[in-house]
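Posting here for the record, re: protoporphyrin IX containing FE.
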Amino acid sequence: MLSKKQAKTFFIAGSLVTFFIFIGLTIFSLSKSQDQSNSDKITESVAHGKHLWEKNNCMGCHTLMGEGAYYAPELTNVIKRRGEVYVKTLLKMKTPWAPRGRKMVAYGFSDEEANDLIAFLKWVGEINLNGFEKVDRTVSPLPKDKMKN
Amino acid sequence: MKYKSQKVAYWFFALSMLLLVLQLTYGFIMGFARLGYDGLHNIIPFNTAHTVHINTLVVWLLSGFMGAAYYIIPEESESELWSVKLAYVQLISLAVVGVAALLGYHFNIWEGRKFLEIPRELDWLVAINVILFLVILLMTIIKGKKKTTTSWVLFGGLLGAALFYLPGMISFDSQVLDSFFRWWVVHLWVEGVWELIMGGILSFLLIKLTGVDREVIEKWLYVVIGLTFLSGILGTGHHYYYIGVNKIWLIVGGIFSAMEPLAFLAMALWAVNMYRKGEKKHPNTLALYWTLGAAIVSFLGAGVLGLAHTLPQTNLYTHGTLVTAMHGHLAFWGAYAMIVLAMITYALPNLTGRKLYDHPRGRAAFWLSNIGMFTMVAAFAAAGVAQVYLERILGYEFGDVQNKIQVHFWVLIMGATILTTGLILYIIDFIKYGLPNDEAVTK
Ligand code: HEM
Ligand code: HEM
Ligand SMILES: [Fe+2]
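Prediction output follows.
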């Protein structure tokens, strides 16, 4: 029968081994050769866009790369889906935008801020997401706008 | 209770109950917003409600863990707390930082990173607060007569929670790296070090409630936390499938996260078997309900519903949908909310000297809150599966799908009402017990 001491050894050994493997995999996975996010394309504008994304807690309603809240649409491919003009217009609006009932916060971003957010979203839209980027596109032969309520 | 200084625990539990009420309130705000009743949009938009909901959740659980530690560590170490005065300083500073953060969320002051929204300046205060907390505990353990496995595991979990808060404070320009290290906090908390905290509390409660020999209970505690780390650390990979890092995580995360339910299964079997084995039954039946409930419901919420979407082939479609919300609710409820409520139910009669062990209101609180939560989870599940099919498989527009599945949110509100009724009964009990007092000390 297992003794308390053996149980303790199991705990310590198991934790240490998996922890070191985890650190090793992290280093490997974040190394330059494994980069699939075009990190060299993070311009000042992209970085500022990310800052605005955080500062305004966009993730409190939307998901990006599948992370965030589930009140508002996934934005990974939003620039490809809607185009820059559309997105820019809604970012600059001063009254709540609500195309399908739910309201977005009226941020009233300046031209420059809107551009930076778009640069950020465009950068995200180019990341290789191991297939998730395809799920966020129309995957059905049915056009999205044909659905009747 | 055995030591006067254990009374500190009461105030952490009280803070916990207060934040729980706030959490439920903001939950309703979100639920109604999804039904189109968003009259509060200009003052409390959805992102504010969401952030307050999940932050009050985390802080009421942490406050509950801290109260549990202030109750358990003196009793296990057989000594008074090292410094009661500092423990009150820590309580008040925790409350002040918490309130400051929550207020800020109403004025667009936050870092929009799910679960880690507390602004950087306040992060430092949190860190100082937690260091103070850990020092008080550590000094108590060192100076105490006994150093038990239960104390060390509980302390280790709390220390781990403090250490794994730090990766969340690093800044990145890349969203990929940001997200990568956000999970070092969120995942390694709930599927790592918090399970040590839960295990420590569970071990203490089982020792007290079942009367089974400490050595036996603590042996299985090691097995449970061993399984936790063995699967949970590499299991972090289940958050790395689709966030822009390489495919190695699909294999590593898939295999190891699929093993995580074993730790929760072991926890449930451990609790149930110790209960069966125990001969001298403690009269606090309600505490036993919550304790066994936590062990079993955590297996359902974290283990079973976690497994339901953890394989990369499934997660490709469910990632970031209401399926996640389904799992998030039952996992947090079963594992962490219920263990805190178990601890409070066990400690209150001892802190206040009123031995109201089993009464209809207490039972109603247990059953109503659980039935309510399961109803909510069923509503999220129905909505989530429909969302995945319509949006991710058929490719319909997000907003159109949300309108189609709106009806499930009426069920959600119904479940939430039952849950809230149960929890209000729980809080009425909490208040009726009265304040902790020195007469309650029994040697
Ligand atoms: C008590 C333990 C657990 C708690 C409290 C918990 C809670 C949560 C929460 C709140 C999320 C959403 C996180 C976010 O989007 O920021 C989440 C996601 C997830 N959880 Fe858990 N969880 C637990 C255990 C587990 C276990 C054991 C498994 C696997 C068997 C699991 C599998 C997952 C997966 C795959 C996701 C990602 C969902 C997605 O892609 O959107 N969880 N969990
Ligand atoms: C009055 C009762 C409650 C209601 C109406 C409610 C409703 C909600 C809603 C609508 C969301 C947002 C989902 C989204 O992103 O769109 C949410 C998120 C969340 N709630 Fe609740 N909730 C309630 C109680 C609770 C309780 C008691 C817990 C924990 C024990 C909890 C834990 C969570 C968590 C962890 C999230 C984030 C989940 C995720 O993103 O996957 N909630 N809740
Ligand atoms: Fe996880």
